[in-house]
Amino acid sequence: MILSRSFLRNIKRNIHLSERHYVKHHNPFVKTWNTLFQDLKSGLNVKSPVYPEHADVVIIGGGFIGASAAFWLKTRAGEGLSVVVLEKDPLYTNTQKMLSHGIMTQHFTLPENIYLSQFSAEFFRNIKEHLGDDIDIEYCPLGQLLLASDKYVEKLEQNVNAQNDYGIRNKLLTVEEIQRRYPWINTSDVKLGCIGTESEGVFNAKELLRGYLQKSKELGANYINSEMVGFEMEVQRDLLMEGITPGSFQKINRLLYKSEDGEIHSLKFAACIVAGGTESVNICKLAKIGESKGLLKDQLPIEKREYNIYSIETAKSGMPVGLNAPLVMDTSGLWLRRNGLQSNLLCGQIPSIKKDSGYSDTDIFQASLLNRYPHFKDAEVNLVSTEIIDCNTYDETGIIGPHPYHSNLVIASGFGRQGVQHSPGIGRAVAELVIDCHYNNIDLIRYGFDRLLTNDPLIETNMY
């Protein structure tokens, strides 16, 4: 990765306002003039937004992954690295509705996902040491129960055996054990279950994001309310690259962004991190990714997926759900959990990767809900939120790493619902790529963009 720092010194301007001194005079005209002059000086001292022209690292997107990357970059490099974060929605409108993203689980089959979950568990246990004493993500170790139909029994057994090899404490449950522990679950089409009780539960995702933002700003990251609108290309005639016509390589080391006052600003950088979630594909198009040929022919395969979150009032169901109820995940994609200590439950349906499945998400959800929880047929079910994820339609696994053409453009997007819980490890990995040019802790090389060029999908074979 090319990370030249020769041109990355911040330009510091000190503006000295000259002062004038007046002899004290009782003349009312002079007295009035002095008052106006002091008001003028006070006005000149009013701070206005500062839009930097240079940065070592610019991060496009200040959500969970972008803010985590900023936190880790500043934690490691401190004042030796200038970090600018461009975020067009400083109120984090979508994040305010995140009721389902705060799920902690280790039920994965890819080693990378397991390692990321294990690191997240460690990070969350020591959250105050990392992000501050005032940060409380309200982690609740509910545990997680997976239900498998006859079709998925063998897969569940294989997954649990593999997870146990990584030190994950999961236990298989028979149908009889499930019925005895959780009588409110219909097990007529269930053949096997798995309960995970260690590092499995829920947490407050909004509080985690607040911690990233607060700590990274405290460490010196500069967040700017702005929208990235373009890259500036610079022809590198002396650079040779396989598959590129000699003298035609175009490097990106400057971007354009629109500030909240509508002005366009230019920002020169050494490394750029694309963490724009569902907007990442459009950001990459501005760098001609997916808009040209050769190494630039493949578009970032990320699309927006929306899904609904429902609240279920179980008071009239006749079958109370105890406080020790785990988060339940069905092979149909239906999930359900308690809403903290409140009387209601939260549930939803993981959206299909295929848009044209022939069924609406609402139809699938209602059928799955009544099948698995028939006691809730008379319960009050209300839509409480519609949430958005960045879905990698190629293989549903996130993309992280430098683009093969633009070596100083690091992509960190497409992690879907796993992006929030894995954000500690993803942000740390991004910082390692920028500072060390390689991974030091969790090797995520297989998550790179290159797998799109070689048609080598990375499939997470969990059951939901």
TrEMBL record:
Keyword Oxidoreductase in annotation: yes
Residues annotated as domain FAD dependent oxidoreductase: 56-433
Molecular function GO labels: oxidoreductase activity
Keywords recorded for this protein, A-Z: Oxidoreductase
Annotated Gene Ontology cellular component terms: mitochondrion
GO BP of this protein: mitochondrial respiratory chain complex I assembly
A Pfam family matched in the record: DAO
Task of the protein: Required for the assembly of the mitochondrial membrane respiratory chain NADH dehydrogenase (Complex I). Involved in mid-late stages of complex I assembly.
Name under which the protein is recorded: FAD-dependent oxidoreductase domain-containing protein 1
Species, as recorded: Pararge aegeria aegeria
Name of the encoding gene: jg14401
